[in-house]
Amino acid sequence: MVENRPYLNFLTHLILIIGAATVVFPVYLAFIASTHGASDFMSGLVPMLPGDQLASNFSQLLNVGNSVAGAPPFALMLANSLLMAILIAVGKIAISIISAFAIVYFRFPLRLVAFWIIFLTLMLPVEVRILPTYKVVADLGMLNSYPGLVIPLIASATATFLFRQFFLTIPEELMEAARVDGAGAMKFFRDILLPLSRTNIAALFIILFIYGWNQYLWPMLITTDPQYYTAVMGIKRLASVLDGDTQWNLVMAGVILATLPPVLVIIVMQRLFVKGLVETEK
């Protein structure tokens, strides 16, 4: 039963407004900072209204970068981050769904052992195994390369576990019916499992895309060539300028640009994302 009391409505709306303002205000402040000149922040007073340097700041950041900070054009770093995030998301989903399909629908020795070995890797995040991973990548000559950025992050125990749990909810009668109709294993996977997994794939794609986009430690460790810098690395380099001469207008412009792709992906795939999460909970 929902109580309809005026003071409760006022309280819930007040909490909602305060929460929304807490989230939105830093983004607004970053946008305002990106529209002013670099010297506007040296007076000690933070402007609260947009300035007239929006086009010049974003144009300089996207096309020129900041040579003092050692940051290449931000357009290049956005492209690197986009490529890295898409490859990581697609690669994780492809490997995970095939692994889960093999574990659930094929009977082979040590099948459960293989699953639990995959599951146990959930306890080994990138930060824990980063040194041996770096050694392997360096020995394979993949430093300062796109394969080096993507391949070590492309396997996902979480996605394998989620796909396995979803496949276990599919009735066995469906597989038997497909078998009676002459469908082989791959036809069953392609024509039945993949369409049924559409919303789960969409939800995982968003989560894994944001995971790949926000990667900071691994790209910073294996890339010294500005050609392979990512957007998150670029923001750090823009903010870490010697002698404290940081151009905060460019830093905030980079922050605004770096938030746009994940937000666009969520907006475009919002319906499938919510549906996929709800079905996963089932």
Automatic annotation (TrEMBL):
Chain segments annotated as transmembrane: 7-33, 82-106, 113-131, 151-171, 192-213, 250-274
Family matches, as Gene3D superfamilies: MetI-like (1.10.3720.10)
GO cellular component terms given for this protein: plasma membrane
Signal peptide start-end: none
Stored Pfam families: BPD_transp_1
Biological function: Part of the ABC transporter complex UgpBAEC involved in sn-glycerol-3-phosphate (G3P) import. Probably responsible for the translocation of the substrate across the membrane.
Protein name in the entry: sn-glycerol-3-phosphate transport system permease protein UgpE
UniProt source species: Rhizobium sullae (Rhizobium hedysari)
Gene: ugpE
